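Worked example

This section walks through a single chain of length 106. The input is the sequence exactly as stored; nothing has been trimmed or padded.
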Amino acid sequence: TLTSNVQQIRAIAHAVSLMQQDEMYHFNSMEVVICGQTVTELTRPEVMEPILQAIADANLQVKACGFSVNGQKVDRSQLPPQIEVVENGIAYALSKQLAGYEVLGL
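Given that input, the structure is written out below as tokens.
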């Protein structure tokens, strides 16, 4: 999933939890890539605390777009360790799609 809204991570994590419980989905995991100006919120503990809990509860993988991180001058050392930075979020999502993954843009 590609999103430009950090707050959507909790809703995505909730959906993942529900899908993991339902055999109909044959669901293993989901990755979320955060792009755009909202990457600045990833360094704010008051924003990230409930989001990091949702990530852990759903076993969700969250990545930050390196292009956005650089463009917004985000200090990578301030990102939570659970958030991996990928070089370019859009290119990453496209590569996943080409590899056969479903890509959802929010």
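What to look for: The chain has a mean pLDDT of 89.
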